[in-house]
Structures are given as C-alpha cells and as structure tokens.
Amino acid sequence: MKKLRADLGRRAATFAMMALASLLMAGCHHRTTVAYQPPPPPVNSHRSTTSTASTEPPIDLKKEASSAPKGFFDDTSGRPVFTEEGTASWYGTIYHHHAAADGTIFDQNEMTAAHRTLPMGSTVRVTNLATGQQVLVRITDRGPFAPGRVLDLSMGAAKAVGIYRAGVAKVKVEAFAHASPDPEGRWCVQTGAFKTEGDALDLKAGLLHRYNTAKVTEFSGPTGFWVRIDPVQHSKTQAAEIADWIGTPDPAALPYLVRLD
C-alpha cells in the first residue's frame, strides 16, 4: 500500500510539472509583440525646422513684387509703418472663389491675407520667425477671429512662407505705407463665435438696448454665431468703447475691433 501511494505521488508530481511546462510554452506563444520605440531626442537637440516646414523654395521678394500686376503691391523700398509679431494661420478651401471683405473674389492661391485693422490693399511683408522665409501679401480680407492670432494667410502665401503643413507659426508682420481715401478708417466691432444662436441673440438685444442708434446684426459662420455692431459714425473711438463694454457683462465674449475699409 505504501509503495502504491508513493507511485501515485510521483505520477501526480510529474503531471503537475508537465502542466506547468505547457502553460509556460503557451504563454510564450501568445506573448504580445511590442513595436520598437526609439528613445526621444535630447532636450538640446538641434533638429532642423525647415525640413518639414515647407517644400517651397525661398521667395525673392523683389522678383515677387515686380512680377505682380501693376498696383497690386505698395512701394516696399521704405521703412515699414506698422510692425507686430504673433501667430499666423491660413485659410483656403471653404472660402475659395467667394467674395473677400474688399469685394474681390478670394483666390486661395494668390498672395493675399486677412488682418483686422490694416487698411484694405495694404502690402505686408511676412517673415516666418522659425525659418526666416518671407513673402509679400496684399490685405484683402478681415480676420483672423481667433484668440492670439494676428494674420490669416491664403493657402498660397502659407506655402510660400513655410506654415502650410504646421497650420500656424510665429511671424513678423511689417506693413508699408498705403494711400487710403479715409486715413482715419471706418470701424466696427465683431464678437463671437457663440456656440448657440440664442447666446448671440442675447448679446444683440443688450447692444441694441445700450446703443439704440447703432446697427447691430447677428449672423452665422463656419465656426458659430457672430454679432457685429456698427457705430453711427463708424469712429474708432466709439468702436473701442463698445468693445470694452462687451467684455464687461460677458467675459466669455471675444470682441474684435475691425476696420471696414
């Protein structure tokens, strides 16, 4: 009897070892394959920013100016009369072949841009601060209406200055002297975009109550609902006052001072 018990114990131990070996082998066969992930580059890595920024060759600004239609660009031989730095973006497809703010038909491949306050028709030299690429553009539209943005380039200009792929980039904006029929300009305030039309209508009602002589319109756009208010005399001073007031009752609203001409 003792011998039988010993044999059964040895057999049980043997079966247990075989089962364990089978489980280990099965585990090896079903192990998840992990793709190799190279370590991240060091913080001080000097990677080139031009390799993926643009495939376009640098533009010769003098050649660009001379090859443009007569009167398309202003004289750029003097010093800029306006300079700012900030984030530029670009726009194209959904606005292509639609009317721009200056009345022309927007062509996404032309060297044009949108700015909120520069006179229509102004010539701007845009410099990509990361790559040094430059392009001349003509202001034909208004915008960008997004926090922190200073310029909206056409798709063609974005490609030329190396921000098409990235979508946005830090730029230097330099505007040259431009002859305008009204040097003081005509101004309005545009605010939004609101997610719901009700929010836009609420602001419109408040503006009409406070500025009952002004023209207030509500309209929809690709990014939401907007409200625009035109002071009676379209003066910049009054428009600035309205923009300041809008931010007081509704901090979430983003009023933009916009030049019309």
Automatic annotation (TrEMBL):
Domain SPOR: 184-231
Example GO biological process: cell wall organization
Polar residues compositional bias, start-end: 45-55
Localization annotation: Cell membrane
Annotated transmembrane regions: none
Keywords tagged on the record: Cell membrane, Cell wall biogenesis/degradation, Lipoprotein, Lyase, Membrane, Palmitate, Signal
Gene Ontology MF term list: lytic endotransglycosylase activity; peptidoglycan binding
Class of the enzyme per the UniProt entry, highest EC level: lyase
Signal peptide (residue range): 1-26
InterPro entries on file: RlpA (IPR034718), RlpA-like_DPBB (IPR009009), RlpA-like_sf (IPR036908), RplA (IPR012997), SPOR-like_dom (IPR007730), SPOR-like_sf (IPR036680)
A single GO cellular-component term on record: plasma membrane
Domain RlpA-like protein double-psi beta-barrel span(s) in chain numbering: 84-173
Family under the similarity heading: Belongs to the RlpA family.
Role: Lytic transglycosylase with a strong preference for naked glycan strands that lack stem peptides.
Record protein name field: Probable endolytic peptidoglycan transglycosylase RlpA
Organism encoding this protein: Granulicella mallensis (strain ATCC BAA-1857 / DSM 23137 / MP5ACTX8)
Gene name of this polypeptide: rlpA
